[in-house]
Amino acid sequence: MFATTRNSKPETRNLPDRLPPHPSHKIDRTLAFHFTFDGRTYPAFAGDTIASALWAAGVKVLGRSFKYHRPRAPFAFTSGDTNALVRAGDEPNVRPAVRPVEPGMEVRPQNAWPSLQADIMTLTGLGSPLLPVGFYYKTFIRPKALWPAYETVLRHAAGLGHVTPHPPDARYDKQYRFADVLVIGAGPAGMSAALHAAEAGARVLLLDENPFPGGHLTYERQPIPLDGEAVPPYELAERLAAQVTAHPNIRFEPNTTAFGIYPHLWVGASQNDRRLLKIRARSLVIANGAFEQPLLFHNSDRPGVMLGSAAQRLMHLYAVKPGERAVVLSANRDGLAVALDLHAAGVHVAAVVELRPHPDPDLSAQLQEAGIPLHTDRILAEARGSRELTGVMLAEADIISREMPGGIRPRRGTLRFVPCDLLAVSAGWTPATGLLYQAKAKLAYNEARGEFLPVELPAHVFAAGRVNGTHSVRAELLEGEIAGRGAAAAAGFGDAPSPAQQAELEACKAEEPVRTAKIIYIPGGKKQFISFDEDVSVQDLRDSVAEGYNSMELLKRYSTLSMGPSQGKYESANTMALCAEANGVPIAEVGTTTSRPPFTAVPLGVLAGRKMEPVRYTPMHGWHVAHGAKMMNAGLWKRPEHYGDPLAEVRATRNGLGLIDVSTLGKIQLRGPDVPKLLERLYTNRWLKLAEGRARYGVMLNEEGVVFNDGVTAHLKGDNWYMTTTTGGATAVYEMITWYLQSGWKLDVRLCDLTDTFAAMNLTGPAARRILQPLTDVDLRNEAFPYMGAREGTVAGVPAILLRIGFTGELGYEMHVPAGYALYLWETLLEAGREAGITPFGVEAQRIMRLEKGHFIIGQDTDGLTDPFMAHLDWVVKMEKEDFVGKPSLVRVQKRGTRQRLVGYRMLDSSIVPEEACQIVRPNPEWPIGLEILGRVTSARYSPTLDESIGLCWLPVDMARPGVEFTVRVRG
500: Cβ–Cβ under 8 A, 6 or more apart, which residues? Predict the structure, then answer.
């Protein structure tokens, strides 16, 4: 039993020492609890992550590596840190560096047998010469008979978690969000962008993957010079966060990771790994920061070796001392700041090894004042320690060139051992450009800064902060302001930033020191791992290039670089530099690999979630409910099933006048000179000579020749056409047409989806013309407006498209009008038709009347195997046409013939209405229960007009003819 207490002495027993309280800390010391790791109990505070709590308790090794089963610990303490994945409860592959620890949580290591401390698979390290890069393509091929045994061993040795066979207990949701400006990243640049976009009047949605805003301000300590004062970073973060929280136009979502950017600024985000946010924005600001770049050296993966920013996170977010005795390997200003922070936290800093010849004077002076040795003529040769870091080997630096990836080498004979349990590395930054790539931004290598940076952004997409190569806080705030104002202006709010602001930003960025070293590895030793995910070493990369895999895309796939759980976030920059060196070309020529969603790992449960789509309502929905309609689901729409008595609705429509809401139909406007050619290819029948003012019924097939959709398309005037589709197929038809237009048909056609923009209603019955004519300026006489005619005019003063069509078999006029006028026109028609006994009717009455007419419904009477010949649609298929979608498949169908047909039927006993999907059978002793299944009933209703039980069914071809009797198997 694990207790959670507040201010309770007994439950805080055995809590390790933490650093003194500080405003930047995110832990709640008044709320202590316990959890287990590898069967042992450890204490934690609310706000801790799994890794921070274990590190505070002295536990560093949390897992084993993928290939060689080397001991591994978190090294970055970010969401991209997958160096030691664990199992939390039944959930595998949990990132302990960022997963909050919970009371009673049971955490177990992965990829270790029989235990984490004694993993027998570490023996694979001894056999590493037998497991070169790409060994799975080269070895264990012969003899074939032994492959099953090899496969079993390899799969058990592979280092990812095991999926639990039973469903997870978690509940996953989906939610749609809309914003004028979406800002990804709540660091200083992101919050500045959000605030200035909101000030311009835009609705802003701000996302951040962390539980709190602030970005790097939350874990840094060096004061920031702003407006003549030195502001602590955490204090600036609190000021900005308070403004963001208080602003009415900003909605901030913490613990929310944007993982994919799709066409038209559609963004996918995972919230708390439990909710999928589907976000549509008018403008997008990407301010998701950068990843600190590791330096490569022998044994750089030892637990105790970490990034400088990781050490700062432990100290300043979780109040944990990263070690007792530290060495700092620095190549920029950040490394010196890390050393000062460690010293302030009580960590003995044994040495700072600086790769630059002239480190920052102000910080160097502070190091000297603190008594911290600063070496510019030394180099780190390797890390020492079998299970954890015990020290490092330093040597005099043999400098060849500081502009080469391996341009500084340890001088032979000068090695010196320095004991330490912490090695903090600050060598540079890699902008987190994955989302920018997905947004179709163009990036190029900036030689001066040593980073791939955006050089061209798509319309309505903006970048700010470290993802754009901006590191000083002053420049980040200014760039965020410019991006926020620009995004708001692109969305239609406020003015765009002035050239003077842009010039000020450029001047500010020009003053920034370079943060990324050209030195990325220190020669010497075989265990220089580029990828901690896959145990890929520097030598593995060189071997891959030597074997011919010399492009980034080939190298990635052959060596598995950037294909592990982190997707290359901490290895991509080093990979590109080493690939360039191995090929003897500049980094700019090597390029990058393709970034595809998801940018960050997303649970499959989040992507699947509960089946949820937005409920859609017609403009007349409120009227239907107020007048007693029983509502039903029709796809995503709510439609009236009936208003009390569907049979009475049928009789009223047949004998007088009925009105039905058909707003749910798909509605697509097509314009352009090539619309007839498009329709000729989409539909099975002819369209090239359809006259203006005429409409035609058409059937669409998919590539397999299966009936996909049907509907009516009208030629209104000139190159203006209007298409209607089934309710359920509206989106699919629009997407299919769009796909074909973009896939090589090269037709001059423009589409506009009017499904939500227009509403529609059908006035049908013998009195339809008499009631409608006084309300419209369209001549409804039969000779002026024949069946299957189409006209544009007004009805009750409302602009409308009128189609003389009918699903009921009666005289009918279908009116398509702007959705905002629909309710007015609906009520006007009801009032005008009162003297004719007008009756609103629902889907049930419509289905009865369409059965009486003999019309089928796609998806109910057809299925995924129905071709048009099976459905008696031969009359609408013109096989003599040159081509149409599905024709090649229909040619094969014609040769093969059909085995079943869709036919209408009437029951001999009109009192029996079989359930839909009932089997059609005949006696056959060779079949189970003695009945052979011949077909099935797809639609069945009682017809008040015919006083018969009628329907549609599938029958074998030899029985699909008038007069044939058959048996339907019904319940009871």
Answer: none
Question: How far apart, in whole angstroms, are the C-alpha atoms of residue 200 and residue 481?
Answer: 11
Report the 10 Å Cβ neighbour count for 14.
10
Question: Left, alpha or beta for 45 (phi > 0: left; psi -120 to 50: alpha)?
Answer: beta
Summarised one tens digit per residue, pLDDT across range 124-175 is 767 677 677 877 777 777 788 888 888 887 777 666 788 888 877 788 999 9
* Whether residue 312 sits in one domain with residue 268: no
Interval 402-406 mean pLDDT: 86
pLDDT digits (tens, 9 = 90+) for 13-53: 456 679 999 999 999 999 999 999 999 999 999 999 999 99
Host domain of residue 461:
173-291+430-510
- pLDDT value at 6 more than 70: no
Cβ-count burial 621-647 (b if 16+ within 10 Å, e if not): bebbeeeebebeebbebbbbbbbeebb
Give the separation between CA 668 and CA 449, rounded to whole angstroms: 50
Are 491 and 531 within one domain?
A: no
Which amino acid appears at position 486 of this protein? G
The percent of the chain in helix, strand and coil, each rounded to the nearest 5, is 30, 30, 45
Say which amino acid occupies 399. Answer: I
**DSSP letter at 689?**
T
Cβ-count burial 454-472 (b if 16+ within 10 Å, e if not): beebeebbbbbbbbbbbbb
Measure the CA–CA gap between 290 and 305, rounded to whole angstroms. 20
Q: Is residue 865 part of a domain?
A: no
Q: CB of 322 within 8 A of CB of 55?
A: yes
Residue 567 CB partners (closer than 8 Å, separation 6+):
434, 599, 600, 601
Closest CA to 505 of 475, 485, 465: 475
Final residue belonging to a domain, choices 485, 510, 535: 510
835 and 903 fall within a common domain: no
Q: Is residue 707 part of a domain?
A: yes
868 close to 707: Cβ distance less than 8 angstroms: yes
Three-state SS for 245? Answer: helix
* Under 8 Å between Cβ of 379 and 357: no
- Within a domain: 889: no
State both tokens at 922.
């005949």
Closest CA to 707 of 724, 683, 740: 683
Report how far residue 498's alpha carbon sits from residue 479's, in angstroms, rounded to the nearest whole number: 12
Bridge-partner residues for 425, per DSSP? 307, 329
Regarding whether 542 and 449 lie in a shared domain, the answer is: no
Domain boundary among 427, 461, 488: 427
Burial (CB count <10 Å: 0-12, 13-18, 19+), residue 183? buried
Q: What 3-state class would DSSP assign to 952?
A: strand
Distances (CA, A) of 137 to 297, 532, 561: 28, 21, 16
Q: Does 868 sit behind a cis peptide bond, omega within 30 degrees of 0 on the bond before it?
A: no
How far apart CA 188 and CA 471 sit, in angstroms, is: 10
112-126 pLDDT, tens digit each: 888 888 887 777 767
The closest of 178, 185, 75 to 435, measured between CA atoms, is 185
657 and 747: one domain? yes
Q: What 3-state DSSP class applies to 230?
A: strand
Q: What is the mean pLDDT of the chain?
A: 92
Same domain as 576, residue 722: no
Nearest Cα neighbor of 317 from 56, 633, 635, 593 is: 56
β-strands 461-463, 275-286 pairing? parallel
Q: What is the pTM of this model?
A: 0.77
Judge whether 860 lies within some domain: no
Q: Per-residue pLDDT tens for 205-252? A: 999 999 999 999 999 999 998 888 899 999 999 999 999 999 999 999
Residues in contact with 249: Cβ distance below 8 Å, sequence separation at least 6, in sequence order: 198, 199, 201, 202, 203, 204
